[in-house]
Amino acid sequence: MKFDLHVTDGTARLGTLDTPHGRVRTPAFMPVGTQAAMKGVHWHEVREAGADIVLSNTYHLMLRPSAERIARLGGLHAFMGWPHPILTDSGGFQVMSLAKLRKVAEHGVTFQSHVDGATVELTPERAVEIQRLLGSDIAMQLDECVALPAPPAEIERAMRLSLRWAERCKRAFEEDLPSGRALFGIVQGGDVPDLRRESARALVDLDFQGYAIGGLAVGEPQATMLAMIEEVAPLLPADRPRYLMGVGTPDDLLKGVARGIDMFDCVLPTRNGRHGLAYTRFGPVNLKNARHAEDPRPLDPESPCRVAATVPRAYLHHLIRVDEMLGAMLLSIVNIAYFQTLMQGVRAAIAERRFADHAAAVTEDWSRGDVPAL
């Protein structure tokens, strides 16, 4: 993997990340295909929307259909029909949030599968092995994520355990180094600045190919999240990609980019689309609202997304109200396209060193109101 930083505009960064399966333009938003699928959306639609890279999840794929089966079928890229870059999350967050019963120890975490109740063990070494079997371009270390707010002592315990696991993940990764692929370390430390800085410095000493900031957007206010980014980002090497995990809203993305973040992922575009919410350059539009029942306008006639530019709001409202799966599919496409268009605009603005003005204009558009009536 090779990361090139081309332009900086303040602390906003424009770069490219070259992987065995292609180039990622940064800042990048990664759509989430947790179980090797984007709910209700075909991969060619994700690509046409402008996505360079997607995310899949180790926890879910290790349970079904299993990493070994995917490896026998040619790896994750062939299995899911996405020949472009893939990042796999290590599964630590899902173990903590989804597993019915779990026991965290120095060796790893033992949990009860949410699928069939079977007892499963996930160690740092096994997390790396699974991601190697999947064949992802970017793998993540196993870490322990703590929901906020939490006692400082608990945050510190999890951070130090995550650091020890990071060292074991890196050692396992380097024992059978996949050609061109990368392993990222994950900065933990909750909302405690000293712990965040200690975690970042220790991970930099371990010399990962990239660095993620984890354990945010887990219950804390946005201001806290941004403050933790400001603590961590200056400590990370300028020549390595920086990934803010599980974030977020369009506003989170703009503010993350302004603080030096290169990569993001979140389920919001598809999850909210399934619940009738469309993201547009004028802000979110709730298609469940009755005021859309006789509105012939599209969401945005100037959108590069065909659905957003042509499909009447009245029709989208009808589909959502009658729980027709096509409604969820169409709004998911709209939202994936909006997030990619947002990042394309961000990259163009950084290239021209006008990011601050661009971000301010985008934010103003969100507050201005909807497209004019026909």
Automatic annotation (TrEMBL):
<feature type="binding site">
    <location>
        <position position="143"/>
    </location>
    <ligand>
        <name>substrate</name>
    </ligand>
</feature>
<feature type="binding site">
    <location>
        <position position="215"/>
    </location>
    <ligand>
        <name>substrate</name>
    </ligand>
</feature>
<keyword id="KW-0808">Transferase</keyword>
<comment type="subunit">
    <text>Homodimer. Within each dimer, one monomer is responsible for RNA recognition and catalysis, while the other monomer binds to the replacement base PreQ1.</text>
</comment>
<dbReference type="InterPro" id="IPR036511">
    <property type="entry name" value="TGT-like_sf"/>
</dbReference>
<keyword id="KW-0328">Glycosyltransferase</keyword>
<comment type="pathway">
    <text>tRNA modification; tRNA-queuosine biosynthesis.</text>
</comment>
<dbReference type="InterPro" id="IPR002616">
    <property type="entry name" value="tRNA_ribo_trans-like"/>
</dbReference>
<dbReference type="InterPro" id="IPR050076">
    <property type="entry name" value="ArchSynthase1/Queuine_TRR"/>
</dbReference>
<dbReference type="GO" id="GO:0005829">
    <property type="term" value="C:cytosol"/>
</dbReference>
<protein>
    <recommendedName>
        <fullName>Queuine tRNA-ribosyltransferase</fullName>
        <ecNumber>2.4.2.29</ecNumber>
    </recommendedName>
</protein>
<comment type="function">
    <text>Catalyzes the base-exchange of a guanine (G) residue with the queuine precursor 7-aminomethyl-7-deazaguanine (PreQ1) at position 34 (anticodon wobble position) in tRNAs with GU(N) anticodons (tRNA-Asp, -Asn, -His and -Tyr). Catalysis occurs through a double-displacement mechanism. The nucleophile active site attacks the C1' of nucleotide 34 to detach the guanine base from the RNA, forming a covalent enzyme-RNA intermediate. The proton acceptor active site deprotonates the incoming PreQ1, allowing a nucleophilic attack on the C1' of the ribose to form the product.</text>
</comment>
<comment type="similarity">
    <text>Belongs to the queuine tRNA-ribosyltransferase family.</text>
</comment>
<feature type="region of interest" description="RNA binding">
    <location>
        <begin position="246"/>
        <end position="252"/>
    </location>
</feature>
<keyword id="KW-0671">Queuosine biosynthesis</keyword>
<feature type="active site" description="Nucleophile">
    <location>
        <position position="265"/>
    </location>
</feature>
<feature type="binding site">
    <location>
        <position position="188"/>
    </location>
    <ligand>
        <name>substrate</name>
    </ligand>
</feature>
<feature type="domain" description="tRNA-guanine(15) transglycosylase-like">
    <location>
        <begin position="11"/>
        <end position="366"/>
    </location>
</feature>
<feature type="region of interest" description="RNA binding; important for wobble base 34 recognition">
    <location>
        <begin position="270"/>
        <end position="274"/>
    </location>
</feature>
<dbReference type="GO" id="GO:0008616">
    <property type="term" value="P:tRNA queuosine(34) biosynthetic process"/>
</dbReference>
<keyword id="KW-0819">tRNA processing</keyword>
<feature type="active site" description="Proton acceptor">
    <location>
        <position position="89"/>
    </location>
</feature>
<feature type="binding site">
    <location>
        <begin position="89"/>
        <end position="93"/>
    </location>
    <ligand>
        <name>substrate</name>
    </ligand>
</feature>
<dbReference type="GO" id="GO:0008479">
    <property type="term" value="F:tRNA-guanosine(34) queuine transglycosylase activity"/>
</dbReference>
<dbReference type="InterPro" id="IPR004803">
    <property type="entry name" value="TGT"/>
</dbReference>
<dbReference type="Pfam" id="PF01702">
    <property type="entry name" value="TGT"/>
</dbReference>
